[in-house]
Specification:
single chain; 59% helix; 7% strand
């Protein structure tokens, strides 16, 4: 019989590292490492253990997993900083302002969420009117599109909120270039001009910015709950939990400001999901007033919410190699279809999915 999500070793540790460390058996620690490796959270776990001096609670035979994860995280961090510098050099030469998004933003803005986080790519945002100039500058510095199919090029350039993914020929690093935070064809319509109005500069990088703390959180929630791939869903939820904690501790008006900004930006629905699943899975302390206010605007119909609970909790349950969960494949498929439905109207979505299925993608 499969454990509930709250009974999973990895989730127990993320909710309360100190308490878990005192109660875990050797088998629990081994499961934790296997689950966190599969969910891309092993380096985060290693960071939390080192930060809280919990190594004495862990069987000696497992230490090398955590030490290796820390080494990988530090190397990854250096690579991200180097990649950001190269992107900055490319775009600064043509005086293009650029906003770092997600993981790279956490790193350059010294967010707690960057600690122990691994990165598969760098995400940036430029203004739509400067998108072509940005692409030309990046191509000049060695980045090329990874999508050469004519249909894929059209899909990204006409319907999506980003250029086709790019890769650097020399370093093989991945880069996503956005012009807004959600596809223009989506039902939600955040005003990108208002986001640019609140961006914050990165010291020593004139013309390079990160989103404001509130907008960074809204983008994190929007990205997580509009994506169809939840293989890193728990990792992204940990990011969101960290951002909630870090900024609510600094600003007494944080929760109220977040609620108001979500309504202003038409992002109450993804914020509702972010609050709900951080609270439900990770035990994040969310003020009841905030949760009720966001729910009043952003909560879906009851049956929809019931279905989301069933699917998301299944999709975010950490597993390990050779372990499978009943109906997990079905849940991930429904979430994949849902993500495309959120991005595109049916008249575009149905032909798109048929084409992708025929190509075996």
């Amino acid at each position: 019989m499969h454990k509930s999500l709250s009974q999973i070793s990895l989730v127990q540790f993320l909710k309360n590292p100190e308490r878990a460390s005192k109660t875990f058996s050797a088998d629990d620690w081994e499961l934790l490492i296997r689950q966190s490796r599969r969910t891309n959270l092993l380096s985060r776990i290693a960071f939390l253990i080192a930060e809280r001096n919990l190594f004495d609670h862990i069987p000696q035979s497992l230490h090398f997993h955590l030490e290796g994860a820390n080494t990988i995280a530090y190397s990854n961090l250096r690579s991200v900083r180097w990649e950001v510098l190269k992107i900055y050099e490319a775009l600064n030469q043509v005086n293009l302002p650029v906003v770092l998004l997600k993981g790279a933003a956490y790193v350059m803005d010294n967010k707690d969420a960057a600690n122990g986080r691994l990165f598969s790519d760098v995400d940036i945002m430029v203004k739509k009117a400067q998108l072509i100039d940005a692409e030309k500058a990046l191509v000049k510095h060695g980045w090329i599109s990874t999508k050469i199919d004519a249909y894929d090029q059209k899909y990204y350039r006409e319907w999506m909120h980003e250029l086709p993914p790019m890769r650097n020929l020399k370093r093989q690093s991945e880069l996503d270039v956005h012009h807004t935070i959600i596809p223009p064809t989506a039902a939600l319509k955040p005003k990108i001009e208002k986001i640019w109005d609140h961006v914050e500069p990165i010291p020593d990088y004139p013309g390079m910015f990160v989103l404001s703390p509130i907008d960074m959180i809204l983008h994190s929630a929007t990205h997580l709950f509009h994506e169809g791939d939840f293989s890193h869903g728990l990792r992204d939820l940990v990011d969101l939990d960290s951002l909630f904690k870090e900024h609510s501790e600094k600003d007494n008006s944080f929760w109220q400001t977040l609620t108001i900004r979500a309504q202003e930006m038409d992002l109450s629905r993804p914020l509702f999901y972010g609050l709900r699943y951080c609270k439900k899975i990770l035990g994040t302390q969310i003020p009841e007033t905030c949760y009720k206010q966001v729910s009043a605007v952003g909560a879906p119909p009851r049956f929809h919410l019931y279905a989301m609970d069933k699917m998301l909790l299944k999709a975010m349950t950490p597993t390990y190699i050779n372990q499978s969960l009943p109906f997990a494949g079905f849940a991930n498929f429904i979430l994949f279809v849902r993500s495309h439905y959120l991005r595109m109207p049916l008249k575009l979505l149905i032909p798109h999915l048929i084409r992708k299925s025929l190509k075996g993608e």
